[in-house]
Amino acid sequence: MHRHTLKERVQFADTDMAGIVHFSNFFRYMERVEHDFFRALGLSIWDKSNEIPVDERVGWPRVHVSCDFRAPLQFEEEFTMELLVVEIRPRTLRYLIRFWKLDGELCAEGKLIAACVRRDPTTGKMRAVNIPDRIRSRISVAPESALAPVA
């Protein structure tokens, strides 16, 4: 899978005094659609299943996140988050996340890079590892046409 969408409604707690989504909440939204993407793959972003041996569990810390804003979202407004897989490297996933108003207007575009890591059982430190095949085999890169800039 290379594309995933999630529809949401702006909550009052997400807004500033003008009723507009505070910029920081777009980063929470990006994480929310990423988690939903993993669930759609039959996985979880938090590898705590008893079916997965402890020494094979991975985590996904962010190594880069940015967001460009075009139009505000307001309290009670519904919108769609679209996650596109831009690149799969041996140890990282790169996403493009677009935020669409229901009328089709692009209101923001985020970029997120997550590294695949595993905790060292001896030191407790996280270290980058190759994305396990049980995850990698379910993800593909979006076609260039889907990744083209939006005018």
What is the topology?
Elements: E1 3-9, H1 24-40, E2 62-69, E3 78-88, E4 92-101, E5 106-115, E6 117-119, E7 126-128, H2 133-136, H3 144-147
Antiparallel strand pairs: 1-3, 2-5, 3-4, 4-5, 6-7
Which shape, going by the Cα principal axes?
globular
If classified by CATH, what would the architecture be? Roll
Structural domain count: 1
Q: Measured on Cα atoms, how large is the radius of gyration? A: 17 Å
> Which structural class is indicated by helix and strand composition?
alpha+beta
Order of helices and strands: EHEEEEEEHH
Strand order of the largest sheet: 1-3-4-5-2
Q: What's the total number of strands? A: 7
Can you describe this structure?
The protein has helices at residues 24-40, 133-136, 144-147; strands at residues 3-9, 62-69, 78-88, 92-101, 106-115, 117-119, 126-128. With 151 residues, the chain is α+β, with helices and mostly antiparallel strands. It has one domain: Roll (Thiol Ester Dehydrase, Chain A), CATH 3.10.129. The strands form two sheets. It has a five-stranded antiparallel sheet, covered by helices on one side. Strands 6-7 form a two-stranded antiparallel sheet. The model has no long low-confidence stretch (mean pLDDT 93).
